[in-house]
Design a protein that fits this description.
heterodimer; A: mainly alpha; 2 domains; 0% strand; B: alpha+beta; OB fold (Dihydrolipoamide Acetyltransferase, E2P); five-stranded antiparallel sheet; 3 helices; elongated
Chain lengths: 143, 145
């Protein structure tokens, strides 16, 4: 039960990040296309998408659930699974016309986004981790 | 509880002998009090009482209202509550890492930040523990981050 709530808490955190990212993307696209309105049901669709991709991320990068899979494989799987879900949502909820020339633009934007977010997490972990471990080393030297 | 003090010039050092019917919480608390100054804590395992050096402890964990002491190759139970351990030893190398754990910083090998503001720590026994987001500032303060 405790683990259930812990995972729920993690999903909630990621869901918030993704939800804000989706809304931000929608805002940028709306600015470019001159769109002034956002249907209320779209807000719920975005929220559902944020919950699903947040849950998938927690599942994929959980060491206890998938312990023996390399991080490269996990990132590749994440890229593909998230892309499929995104396409499903776009198609099912009729967000935009996806196929044709739009599809290649969509893939480029998605790939750039994914690489950007992955690099962001990578550098966050690397920089913060290095700083923490440096402080830990100094702490141990004083003992 | 009866206290008998045997004052004698021939006694070279202070010796305390506890005579009791069985080792219960009162006796364990008494031992803990006596040992407080010596950087040790008492733990029980299979009905036996062990004296454990604080600097050998990796972490304390509370499970189902019981508190356990983890050292490199062994686990002991203590009658102390986690908040009591926190109060007693937070001035040392111990810090509250989550609602159920207190970790010895000196036994951390690697600190690894993870998504959601939490931190994963690798201990000397290769065990990984999580520092909850709400307790990360305590670790930061301890490390002078």
């Amino acid at each position: 039960m405790k683990n259930f709530f812990n995972i729920g808490y993690e999903i909630k955190g990621l869901m918030a990040i993704y939800f804000v990212s989706i809304i931000f993307t929608y805002g940028v696209v709306s600015l470019i296309t001159g769109n002034n309105i956002m249907p209320l049901e779209m807000l719920w669709e975005f929220l559902l998408l944020a919950v699903i991709i947040g849950a998938i991320q927690i599942f994929l990068y959980n060491e206890k659930l998938l312990p023996n899979i390399s991080i490269k494989v996990k990132i590749a799987a994440h890229f593909i699974i998230q892309l499929i879900i995104l396409i499903f949502f776009i198609e099912y909820f009729n967000w935009v016309e996806l196929w044709g020339i739009h599809f290649s633009i969509f893939i480029i934007i998605y790939t750039v986004y994914f690489i950007g977010i992955t690099l962001n997490f990578y550098f966050y972990k690397k920089i913060t981790g290095e700083r923490f471990n440096d402080k830990l080393l100094r702490y141990k030297e004083k003992i | 509880m009866k206290v008998i003090i045997n004052e004698n010039e021939n006694n070279k050092e202070i010796e305390i002998i506890i005579n009791c019917k069985n080792i219960d919480d009162t006796v364990l608390k008494l031992i803990n009090k006596l040992k407080e100054e010596d950087n040790v804590i008492t733990g029980t395992k299979n009905g036996r009482v062990y004296v454990i050096k604080l600097n050998s402890i990796l972490y304390f964990e509370s499970v189902d209202k019981r508190t356990y002491i983890y050292i490199k190759d062994d686990v002991f139970e203590t009658n102390l509550r986690l908040y009591e351990i926190e109060e007693k030893y937070s001035s040392r190398h111990f810090f509250r890492a989550s609602k159920s754990t207190i970790i010895n910083i000196a036994k951390i090998v690697v600190i690894n930040p993870i998504i959601g503001g939490k931190i994963e720590v690798l201990l000397e026994n290769k065990e990984k523990l999580i520092v909850s987001r709400q307790y990360v500032p305590i670790l930061k303060a301890k490390l002078d981050y």
